[in-house]
Every structure is written in structure tokens, then in C-alpha cells.
Design brief:
Blueprint: E1 2-7, H1 11-20, E2 27-30, E3 47-48, H2 59-77, E4 82-83, E5 87-91, H3 94-110, E6 116-119, H4 120-126, E7 136-140, E8 144-146, H5 148-161, E9 165-167, E10 172-177, E11 182-186, E12 190-198, H6 204-208, E13 218-228, E14 239-242, E15 252-255, E16 261-264, E17 268-269, H7 280-293, E18 302-313, E19 319-322, E20 329-333, H8 339-356, H9 381-390, E21 397-399, E22 404-405, H10 406-413, H11 422-429, H12 442-453
Parallel strand pairs: 1-2, 1-12, 2-9, 5-14, 12-20
Antiparallel strand pairs: 3-8, 4-8, 5-7, 6-7, 10-11, 11-12, 13-16, 13-17, 13-18, 15-16, 19-20, 21-22
Helix pairs in contact: 1-5, 1-8, 2-8, 10-12
Length: 480
């Protein structure tokens, strides 16, 4: 019998598992994919928002500002790439300038520090590649960029290191109320628990409805992106937003923590809960909108297009509450933007709700709240030499585009949540994230996975379950 089972291990589920791991509880996490952070968390804008956008008084407003502060602390403790670059919301006419003033007032009410409105001249001085027609800009110095999947993986790894049990490839297919709690049936096993945290993202309504009367409905919303080469990475220094509309914060242009440029997303509601296809029309929409902000983007330097799904529900605010018809079942639903920013605060709120429902949570001694990770190319030369002296594998570069070494790949394969796919390694140490997108290093990463984890080549997947790379020999018995 578990005290708590968390369903879903994206950024919200991982943050909740991390928070629960601070206490003397028997906790498990069930994830339907073969890795953590493998859906919405890996396909978003990678922004820690300052908190000026949500309506004052909402959960989104409160948890965004608190979560932004906590995220900065956690990323420092857990060796997660994070850079507080600040953000602009730019206006091109009097109507948009009025919107900027309204957003400023909203941010002040939400408690966002250091906000100020810049003139067009001031904005261009700070960001000379902006459209010269910019009239004014809201400047939020506390906004940041982050590696979102690394953040979730770090939280999940730390939770596992502190005793949380993680079960991958476990899709929840049934939930039954019992006298003491719940029986959760997955496609692999049955788990008994006193409390359930539903952090299943866009699938939250499906999971909830397995045991309770429907209370909300998921509305999957897709956004498409461009990822550009490092040659475009210094075109802007901050996150550049346009004035928001009814469908969201609009198309942004931003540097990434790895030195690339990200552009997107658009916003369209889709039928499929996991429809991450890109389209010519959708990408053209993103391209044309972004050039209004930064006219000099060279889209011929694109190295990847992708799409992500936002977990909208049929209400405006986050839904963080016990189910109305299933006692001790807590929904963390509708966690759209600023969900990544708010996740650490959402996790704390979830634990507070559990306490209010009667869960006894005593802090454990010896909780590990740090994570050490070697990012070889970021080290000073003398430290690189010292690392290589201890382990020669750090002197062998596998991914030339990103300068990722064999030592880093081997380390992630022996981490608390070892990846078993090419993209799982990519998410942990960035091998294959560069200009060639794994064209050179992919086979070498596959070889290292096979060697370290004793997995036959034919069983190693690219990413999702079933995405096998090698299915058999092609020239058996023939003349080469």
C-alpha cells in the first residue's frame, strides 16, 4: 500500500514527486511513456515567466510568481541549465501600448518585481535587432530561460534518489475505490494507494473519469515551433513577446540555454490529445508573425521543427483541488502556460491539500536536495583536464555539434532514471541536439547504450515505444 501515487511524470508530476520525497511517505509515480518528461514538458517555449500575464487573484497568478522564484533556486541546486535573461512585451501602436500599460499594472498587482515600461528607443538600445517600429516595451528582468526536460528529469531523479518509486511504461487503464483508498490498474500491474495525485497533463480528464463523475474536459491546444542554429542564437538577448491576444501570449523569439534561437508557437485547438504534427501553414504562420518582432531572423538556419500540446481545460484557471466525487483524489489539471514556471509551487500546494485531507507528512532526515552533473564543455580548461585525468572517457567527444563526451553519456546511462533510447540520452546530456540532429553521433550513442545497458541493438528505440531503429540485417548471405 502506497501513501500517495502520482499519475504522470511531466514537469508537474516530477515536481510533486520531488516535494513528496521530502517526507516519510511511501510514494510511487506511474508514467505511461518509456521515459519522464516525454510529452508537453519536452515541447514548449522553455520560459520561466515573470508572472505579469495571469489575472490577479487567480491560482495562475499566485503560483506563477512563487514558482518562478522556486524554479531559480531548484535549478541552481540540481545543476539545471537556467539563465535569467529577462523578457520584453513589445507594442507597435497606441492600442498595443495601452495593453502594455495594462499588463504592467497586472504584474504589479501580482507582485512581480522590477517591472518597468521602456520607450521604443530604450528597447532598441537593449535589443538592436527588434523591429525599429517598436513604440514601447514592458521589461520584466526576472523572466528566465531554462532547459524544461532537464528540469523535470532532475526533479524526478532527485525524488527517486530520496526513495520515490518510478514505474515507466505503466498506462493507467482503471481505478477502483476501496475502503482504504484506491486500486490503480495499469497495462502492466496493479497498485494500491491511499491518495492519488492526477498529474496526467492533457489526459487528466480521462484519468479522473475512470473513478469519478466528469468535472472538466481537456481541450488540447497545439503550438508549432522553429529551432534555429547557434548562428542565430545571439540575434536577441531576451525573450521577445508580442502583445497577448485571446488565444495566448503569441509568437515569441528567444535565445535558448544552449545558444540556439527558438521561435513560436502558434495556437490551434486540435482533436488528438497527442497530435504533434507540424504543417506548412502552421509554420508559415509562426514565421510571418515572428518577423514582425525581429525582421532579421534567417529561417534558412532552421535545424528542427516541432509541435507541442498545451493542457487546456474548459475553464480559464488551473484546477488544483480534490475531486468532488472521489475522496482523496487530487486533480492538477489545466496546467497550461505558465505551468512550467508554476510547477514547483503547484507541487507545494498539492502537498498542502494532502495534509488538509489527513495525510501525515513528517520530514525525513537526510533528504538529498542537490544533484551534481558534469557539463564538460562548460568547464574551464584546467577543470576539463582534471575530469579527463579521473576518467578518460570525458576526453572522447561523441557529439561534435554540442561537444558532448562519452563520459557524459555513460554517466546519464547510470543515473537514477537511466534512459534506454537515443532521445532519452539526448534529453539528458544534449547529444544529438546540434546542427546535424544526431546524424553523426546517433549510431555511436546507440553503441554506447547497447554496451552499458547490455541491450541488443535491435531493441534500442529512437524515442517512443516501438520506434525501433534496427529491425534486422539486410545483406545476410549475399555478396557485399
Amino acid at each position: 500500500m502506497y501513501d500517495v501515487v502520482v499519475i504522470g511524470c511531466g514537469i508537474v508530476g516530477a515536481a510533486t514527486a520531488y516535494e513528496l520525497s521530502k517526507y516519510q511517505l511511501k510514494t510511487a509515480v506511474l508514467e505511461k511513456e518509456n521515459d519522464v518528461a516525454d510529452q508537453t514538458t519536452k515541447a514548449n517555449s522553455a520560459i520561466i515567466h515573470a508572472g505579469y500575464d495571469p489575472e490577479p487573484g487567480t491560482l495562475m497568478a499566485k503560483l506563477n510568481v512563487e514558482g518562478s522564484r522556486l524554479a531559480k533556486e531548484l535549478c541552481q541546486k540540481l545543476s539545471v541549465h537556467y539563465n535569467q535573461v529577462g523578457s520584453f512585451v513589445i507594442a507597435f501602436n497606441d492600442e498595443e501600448a495601452k495593453t502594455v500599460e495594462e499588463i504592467y499594472e497586472r504584474g504589479v498587482k501580482n507582485g512581480v518585481p522590477e517591472l518597468r515600461i521602456l520607450s521604443g528607443e530604450e528597447a532598441l538600445k537593449m535589443e538592436p535587432n527588434l523591429n525599429p517600429k517598436v513604440q514601447c516595451a514592458l521589461y520584466a528582468p526576472t523572466a528566465a530561460i531554462v532547459n524544461p526536460w532537464e528540469f523535470a528529469i532532475a526533479l524526478a531523479e532527485t525524488a527517486v534518489r530520496n526513495g520515490v518509486e518510478l514505474y515507466l511504461n505503466n498506462k493507467v487503464v482503471g481505478i477502483e475505490k476501496t475502503a482504504d483508498g484506491y486500486l490503480i490498474t495499469t497495462d502492466k500491474n496493479v497498485y494500491e494507494t491511499r491518495y492519488i495525485i492526477n498529474a496526467a497533463g492533457v489526459h487528466c480528464d480521462e484519468v479522473h473519469n475512470l473513478v469519478a463523475e466528469p468535472e472538466f474536459r481537456s481541450l488540447p491546444n497545439q503550438g508549432q515551433y522553429y529551432l534555429l542554429d547557434k548562428s542565430q542564437g545571439k540575434l536577441v538577448n531576451k525573450v521577445i513577446f508580442q502583445c497577448p491576444t485571446k488565444v495566448g501570449k503569441g509568437v515569441l523569439v528567444a535565445p535558448t540555454v544552449h545558444g540556439n534561437l527558438i521561435v513560436g508557437p502558434n495556437s490551434h485547438f486540435v482533436e488528438g490529445y497527442e497530435d504533434v504534427s507540424t504543417t506548412a501553414d502552421g509554420l508559415a504562420e509562426v514565421l510571418n508573425a515572428s518577423l514582425k518582432s525581429v525582421p532579421g531572423i534567417n529561417f534558412r538556419e532552421t535545424i528542427r521543427n516541432f509541435a507541442g500540446i498545451r493542457a487546456y481545460i474548459d475553464r480559464e484557471d488551473f484546477l488544483i483541488a480534490e475531486s468532488k466525487t472521489a475522496k482523496n483524489f487530487i486533480n492538477l489539471a489545466g496546467i497550461k502556460s505558465p505551468g512550467l514556471s508554476a510547477a514547483p509551487a503547484i507541487a507545494k500546494m498539492a502537498v498542502d491539500i494532502l495534509r488538509d485531507l489527513g495525510l501525515s507528512a513528517t520530514e525525513k532526515e537526510g533528504f538529498v536536495d542537490t544533484r551534481e552533473k558534469i557539463n564538460f564543455k562548460d568547464l574551464p580548461q584546467e577543470e576539463k583536464a582534471a575530469v579527463i585525468a579521473k576518467d578518460a572517457r570525458y576526453g572522447r567527444v561523441i557529439c561534435r555539434c554540442e561537444t558532448i563526451t562519452e563520459g557524459e553519456i555513460v554517466a546519464c546511462l547510470h543515473s537514477p532514471i537511466p534512459p534506454k533510447t537515443i532521445d532519452g540520452v539526448k534529453r539528458r546530456c544534449n547529444a544529438g541536439m546540434g546542427r546535424c540532429q544526431g546524424g553523426f553521433c546517433g549510431p555511436r550513442v546507440q553503441e554506447i547504450i547497447s554496451r552499458e545497458l547490455h541491450i541488443p541493438y535491435s531493441e534500442i528505440e529512437m524515442d517512443k515505444t516501438g520506434s525501433y531503429i534496427i529491425t534486422g540485417e539486410t545483406k545476410v548471405g549475399g555478396n557485399l
